[in-house]
């Protein structure tokens, strides 16, 4: 599925819709360059799970957990991970295979430990179509 988003609010709403449809043990791999709107998408996703607290990127902590929604939400940003073995120290298996929903930014850096079945969301800019334009591709649903 390919969606065109023309403003941040539309990116947020797509994230919200996917959050509303998420099931326990779902893993979403969120890909895109810096500044494409991954945080906006993630904030919408969290809203779809019923999370009301502020959501931002866990760039320096690797993972943030939110428990106030209808399912636990594990938000990973593995951009700064040095070695995939660091994921063992974090206890990623409890997140990936538990009762919550996991969203991973920069998931390609840990591809060898991802389950076979994930939902991949890729966000791309195209400045020829406007500053706020995003092409969002969702695969694996």
TrEMBL record:
<dbReference type="Pfam" id="PF02367">
    <property type="entry name" value="TsaE"/>
</dbReference>
<protein>
    <recommendedName>
        <fullName>tRNA threonylcarbamoyladenosine biosynthesis protein TsaE</fullName>
    </recommendedName>
</protein>
<dbReference type="GO" id="GO:0005737">
    <property type="term" value="C:cytoplasm"/>
</dbReference>
<dbReference type="GO" id="GO:0005524">
    <property type="term" value="F:ATP binding"/>
</dbReference>
<dbReference type="InterPro" id="IPR003442">
    <property type="entry name" value="T6A_TsaE"/>
</dbReference>
<keyword id="KW-0067">ATP-binding</keyword>
<keyword id="KW-0547">Nucleotide-binding</keyword>
<keyword id="KW-0460">Magnesium</keyword>
<dbReference type="InterPro" id="IPR027417">
    <property type="entry name" value="P-loop_NTPase"/>
</dbReference>
<dbReference type="GO" id="GO:0002949">
    <property type="term" value="P:tRNA threonylcarbamoyladenosine modification"/>
</dbReference>
<comment type="similarity">
    <text>Belongs to the TsaE family.</text>
</comment>
<keyword id="KW-0819">tRNA processing</keyword>
<keyword id="KW-0963">Cytoplasm</keyword>
<dbReference type="GO" id="GO:0046872">
    <property type="term" value="F:metal ion binding"/>
</dbReference>
<keyword id="KW-0479">Metal-binding</keyword>
